[in-house]
UniProtKB/TrEMBL annotation:
The keyword RNA-binding does not apply. It comes from the Bacteria. Belongs to the Nudix hydrolase family. Residues 30-49 are annotated as: Disordered. Gene3D superfamilies: Nucleoside Triphosphate Pyrophosphohydrolase (3.90.79.10). InterPro entries: Nudix_hydrolase (IPR020476), NUDIX_hydrolase-like_dom_sf (IPR015797), NUDIX_hydrolase_CS (IPR020084), NUDIX_hydrolase_dom (IPR000086). One of its GO terms (molecular function) is hydrolase activity. This is NUDIX domain-containing protein. The keyword Cell cycle does not apply.
């Protein structure tokens, strides 16, 4: 069975707020724009495609900020900086997305998972000596 991958993007506005999407399924939680990879697609291509599908903007893929292995689902999640150099306005562009909004990092919305918070926190560490992380089951912050 092929290995599963997922990819997400950290997209910032000019104030340094991070773009999050609100899912229309599950807990209707807030998360980074991203999703599962498709066949013959790199992690970078997954991040670009998922951002476009979910919020209708085309981002350039920048620096890799982390790789997260989830042993419960045997999937590797890649997180990149998403460059929105043309200052496109994101909007929900998929039935999976109820809303999208830029949030200050110290005022993240609820519900959100600890996994989403960790990926955001890791992206802003000035020195990322360790890019690979193994994660446990998600804990929800309500």
């Amino acid at each position: 069975m092929p290995k599963l991958i997922g990819a997400a993007a950290i997209i910032l506005n000019s104030e340094g707020d991070v773009l999050l999407v609100k899912h229309s399924y599950g807990k209707n939680n807030w998360d980074l724009p991203g999703g599962k990879g498709e066949e013959n697609e790199s992690a970078e291509e997954t991040a670009t495609r998922e951002v476009h599908e979910e919020v209708g903007i085309v981002v350039g893929v920048g620096e890799l900020t982390g790789i997260y292995y989830d042993p419960n689902h045997d999937i590797h999640h890649f997180v990149f900086i998403g460059n929105n150099d043309n200052n496109q306005i994101p909007h929900p562009s998929s039935p999976e997305i109820l809303a999208c909004k830029f949030w200050p990092r110290d005022e993240l919305p609820r519900p959100i998972s600890d996994f989403t918070c960790k990926r955001i926190e890791d992206a802003f560490k000035p020195e990322r000596k360790q890019l690979f992380h193994t994660i446990g089951p998600r804990q929800w912050i309500e």
